[in-house]
Every structure is written in structure tokens, then in C-alpha cells.
């Protein structure tokens, strides 16, 4: 791991508290929407086929599916904005520790198929740069657990307005609840690690 370099000739280095809070709040909203969707799916599953109750619950599931798509899009936007700053910080902390160019920090999530593994590669490098200088780790149990559950949820039930088998939708919603909770921990842990590294590098308080 390369030692931190002065930031005078680079972009401003900081851990955005407000943006971190927004990301955590957005992820929390996603978790709540998926919990509500899972409950609605369970109620639909138990309703008699063709009954009025089933019709009514089907509408609820459809509305919550649309709400989830909106929540995911909003969360994705703020998360990627936050992750970009994390990457800027990580480049200063470990100039030679990144295997992909900065543009892939956002672009990797948009490439079909590759989006299942390229973002994790970038996150691993950011995680390693942000970990204690004397104990650099390219990944951790928390980061890997979140990513595996997140990918599994996408493969089962990618957020969209389309519908699949109800049992598959229920499994996907459940996985999104757990992966969302883990992602909140990842965001908070990464922010804390970078704050500690930047404070040690500059000797000054870090926002």
C-alpha cells in the first residue's frame, strides 16, 4: 500500500457527512419499501386465486413494485455520487492501488453482465486504500456478504415494473431487505475508515 500523498495538487479530500447520511437514508427507504412489498406478496400468496381479495392485493403488489423501482433509481444516483468521492479520496490514499480508471466507478454499474463483478473490483480497491495503512485489506466479510446477497437478489428479482413468479419475487424482496441492511453498514464503515485515514494523513479534522 502506497503512503498517502499531499492533496494540494488534487481534488479536495473529504468524507461528506451530509451525503453519507442521505445515502444511508435512501438505503433505509429501499429496505422499508422491500419489507412492505414482501408483506404484500405474502398476503397475495395466501389469497384465494381469482377472489376479490387477490385482485386487491395484486394492485398493492404492483404499486409497491413501482415504488421500489423509483427508490432504487434515486438511491443509485446518490450512492454513485457518494462513491465517486470515496474513489477520489482512495486515489490520494493509495495512488497505485487501483486496477481500473476512475470513470469505471460509475460506468461499471451500467455494463450488462460485467455489472455483477466489475463494481466489486472497484469497491475492493477503495476498501483496501481506506483500510488501516499497517493492515491493508482488499475486501472483508461485510463487503463480500453484501455484494453476494445483492447480486443474488438481482438475479432473482431485478427491480422493474415487470412481474415474475411470485415465489421468486418474494425471495428477491427478502434478499434485497438483507442486502440493503448490510449496504448501510458498508457505507458507514467505509466512511469511518476513510475519515480515520484522512485524519491521520493530514493531522486535521476531516468533515
Give the CA-CA distance, first to last residue: 24 Å
Could you tell me the number of beta strands?
0
Rough outline? elongated
Rounded mean pLDDT score? 87
Low-confidence stretches: 1-8
Computed Rg? 20 Å
As a percent range, the share of helical residues equals 55-70%
Based on secondary structure, the structural category is: mainly alpha
What portion of residues belong to β-strands?
under 5%
Task: Encode the helix/strand succession as letters.
Answer: HHHHHH
Counting H and I runs of at least 4 residues, what is the number of helices? 6
How would you summarize the topology of this molecule?
Layout: H1 17-46, H2 52-93, H3 104-107, H4 118-130, H5 141-157, H6 166-202
Question: What do these coordinates show?
Answer:
The protein is mainly α and 207 residues long. The chain is built from six helices and no strands. The protein has helices at 17-46, 52-93, 104-107, 118-130, 141-157, 166-202. The radius of gyration is 20 Å and the shape is elongated. Mean pLDDT is 87; it is low at 1-8.
Amino acid at each position: 500500500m502506497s503512503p498517502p500523498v499531499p492533496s494540494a495538487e488534487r481534488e479536495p479530500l473529504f468524507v461528506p457527512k451530509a451525503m453519507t447520511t442521505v445515502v444511508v437514508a435512501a438505503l433505509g427507504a429501499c429496505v422499508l419499501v422491500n419489507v412492505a412489498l414482501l408483506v404484500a406478496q405474502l398476503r397475495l400468496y395466501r389469497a384465494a386465486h381469482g377472489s376479490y381479495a387477490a385482485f386487491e392485493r395484486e394492485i398493492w403488489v404492483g404499486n409497491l413494485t413501482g415504488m421500489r423501482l423509483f427508490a432504487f433509481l434515486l438511491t443509485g444516483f446518490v450512492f454513485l455520487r457518494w462513491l465517486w468521492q470515496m474513489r477520489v479520496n482512495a486515489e490520494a490514499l493509495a495512488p497505485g492501488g487501483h486496477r481500473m480508471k476512475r470513470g469505471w466507478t460509475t460506468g461499471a454499474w451500467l455494463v450488462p453482465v460485467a455489472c455483477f463483478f466489475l463494481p466489486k473490483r472497484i469497491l475492493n480497491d477503495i476498501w483496501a486504500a481506506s483500510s488501516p495503512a499497517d493492515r491493508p485489506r482488499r475486501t472483508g466479510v461485510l463487503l463480500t456478504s453484501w455484494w453476494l446477497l445483492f447480486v443474488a437478489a438481482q438475479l432473482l428479482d431485478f427491480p422493474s415494473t415487470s412481474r415474475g413468479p411470485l415465489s421468486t419475487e418474494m425471495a428477491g424482496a427478502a434478499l434485497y431487505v438483507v442486502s440493503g441492511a448490510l449496504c448501510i453498514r458498508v457505507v458507514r464503515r467505509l466512511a469511518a475508515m476513510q475519515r480515520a485515514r484522512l485524519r491521520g494523513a493530514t493531522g486535521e479534522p476531516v468533515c
